[in-house]
Amino acid sequence: xxxxxxxxxxxxxxxxxxxxxxxxxxxxxxxxxxxxxxxxxxxxxxxxxxxxxxxxxxxxxxxxxxxxxxxxxxxxxxxxxxxxxxxxxxxxxxxxxxxxxxxxxxxxxxxxxxxxxxxxxxxxxxxxxxxxxxxxxxxxxxxxxxxxxxxxxxxxxxxxxxxxxxxxxxxxxxxxxxxxxxxxxxxxxxxxxxxxxxxxxxxxxxxxxxx
Length: 211
What we know:
This protein is an all-alpha fold and 211 residues long.
């Protein structure tokens, strides 16, 4: 059964035609497939090279080590989340927009649980920002990508507070709520009633009703 799963992964990954300049994208896509189906233990640059069909040294042109690979996967996840948020209707009341953002966040986290966990783990930097001993500095790519969803949320709160500081605090509170709900759902500690959508559940939990 494991061998069949591995073959299926290779078929999905190798079926993607890419030019040489798109190798980084192909490697990240292959990593996402492996992460979802086999877990983080299956991720290595050598394995990805095999899945994509290039030499075992080719991935090193884009990633020096697994840390750089993990951060690229996380950055791609944050971009995907932000894209989902940007696809909602922004011409609506701020309270409904915030509710839609939260719904998109939870739905993304549930659908991409392994990637979501990596997104969170890779933004937990250990050590001072400029300390040479810090073991997990965020790349600029990850810093920029991880800011996008939160920036959208802060902007949505501009109707409720005139200053950026208050908007940021309100956005942090909203983020904490959806992160908690998403994490509990993923781990099986929370159940949404069968007659409720995620949006309806979030609306009731946050004492808002969708309009």
